Amino acid sequence: MKTALPVFLLCLALCGGAQAEEADFLDDSFYDDAPDAEAAPDPFEHFNRLMFEFNDVTYTWVMEPVASAYSRTVPEDIRQAADNFCYNLQEPVRLVNSLLQLRFADAGTVLTRFVINTLGGVAGLGDVAGREFGFKRVEAGLGETLETWGVPDGFYLVMPLLGATTARELTGTAVDGLAMTPYYFLADTWQEGAVISLGRRVNNISLRLGDYDGLKELTIDPYTAWRDSYFQYRKQARKHSEPVTDNKL
Fold first, then answer.
1. Residues 99, 93: Cα–Cα separation, whole Å
2. What φ, ψ does residue 159 adopt, rounded to 5°?
3. Phi, psi of 164, deg, nearest 5
4. Domain locations in the chain?
5. Residue 138: which of 95, 84, 189 has the closest Cα?
């Protein structure tokens, strides 16, 4: 019998922050016509800075070296296929959140991507929907749903391994982490879930090596830069996930 709680905690810690990691903070186009980010208050800055340092050391001395070795061993197309597979398994929860946010065109896009990639992309290993048909990835999580329903952000928080978040986003990540990740369904034990979760995290980092180091080199205070980038990214993500009316499904 599967042990839900340990797998859930591992999924939350190891994979909950994937979305933020995927933001290309070093791309100038990321900041073009971006609205000013509205940051949540940071009353626990001392704790957050300690957690930021812990995450920084863990990433620099453990995760990045492992991901670098992995990237030299496994071809990029295989690593990208693994990322596509995990992303495709998470589409049903994006569909539910899109519907809860009344983003019906986006919900149609998510459903279309899921069907095409599952059937034509060999269970999601290939992104046929995006590459051949132009259906781009749509992000929709419970944190954004709660925001749509008027739930306030709360306070800014840095969690071990998870990274930057807020009280509302952490709640959304916790729920999505259990429903969204495929590891609970693929693993028979929490130890297997840990291996799958860690593998996904290493694979994710291997596709984005250098982004974090580049951001650190551009600023005197990496903590503040990362906090501001988190809110800027989230603002941009919200902007691009507004209800769409021109999708042709």
1. 10
2. -105, 150
3. -70, 140
4. 4-16+40-240
5. 95
